[in-house]
Amino acid sequence: MSAESSSAVGEQPSAKPKKSAKAAKPESHLAMVRRARRINRELAELYPYAHPELDFSNAFELLVATVLSAQTTDLRVNQTTPGLFAKYPTPEDLAAAVPEELEEVIRPTGFFRAKAKSLIGLSTALRDRFGGEVPPRIEDLVTLPGVGRKTANVVLGNAFGVPGLTVDTHFGRLVRRWKWTDAQDPEKVEADVAAIFPKSEWTMLSHRIIFHGRRVCHSRKPACGACSIAPLCPAYGEGETDPEKAKKLLKYELAGKPGQRLSPPSDYPGRPAPPLGAPEGGA
């Protein structure tokens, strides 16, 4: 992909994957690795501003926001956490929360009773076992209530600079479409993808893949005809291949609509998300 093709947000080159009348030979492992690394380079050009889409100012806020993000959008979490952190700014505050009051604050994120229990439990553990600080080791993080490897890797990669792969639903869907793995188990997916890329790439690779899954390579209607990596994708054709129709399927900044963060990074080319209760502008 040329620099010109990625210079304007939302402008995607027409996808023209190679076609062959003959049955394609099985791809070797080496060829798959080379294709995977090229996809990563293409995504880096398309999303140079890729970032975690949860608003946070410290490791504790990111940990809490990530736990809240289960079964809901990052947008809804970002709209909820300002009020949450205003009332409970520290692990000590959250550990002492009255469950019913906490449930009301986080109700917009769904599953609020289970999430309130996890937040109070993890905050109590941080207070009692880690001196009120979020530990920078995955072995410690996964012992906290409501925290699995995905959440731990989000926190490690974005709050502590420790490389990790975030295997969420978008990540798993795309790496299977790209034939980097056929595994369904998140830990096996993580291991398979980790073997393809140097550790230094893991955190940003996760952001790029998740960005692409949210904006272009959707679950039910992938925008194949507006996808800049279509020539490298074994699953090309599962979605809309007409370029004009595919462009209408693009989301967030690629569609000229707000992103998910109320306070996005300064290099984000789209619009900030609206606060809770405000019109979302079709995001």
TrEMBL record:
Cofactor binding mode and count: Binds 1 [4Fe-4S] cluster.
The keyword DNA damage appears for this protein: yes
Catalytic activity line of the entry: 2'-deoxyribonucleotide-(2'-deoxyribose 5'-phosphate)-2'-deoxyribonucleotide-DNA = a 3'-end 2'-deoxyribonucleotide-(2,3-dehydro-2,3-deoxyribose 5'-phosphate)-DNA + a 5'-end 5'-phospho-2'-deoxyribonucleoside-DNA + H(+)
Cofactor(s) named in the record: [4Fe-4S] cluster
SUPFAM superfamilies in alphabetical order: DNA-glycosylase
Region (Disordered): 1-29, 254-283
PANTHER family in the record: A/G-SPECIFIC ADENINE GLYCOSYLASE/ENDONUCLEASE III (PTHR10359), ENDONUCLEASE III (PTHR10359:SF18)
HAMAP family hit by this protein: Nth
Listed name of the protein: Endonuclease III
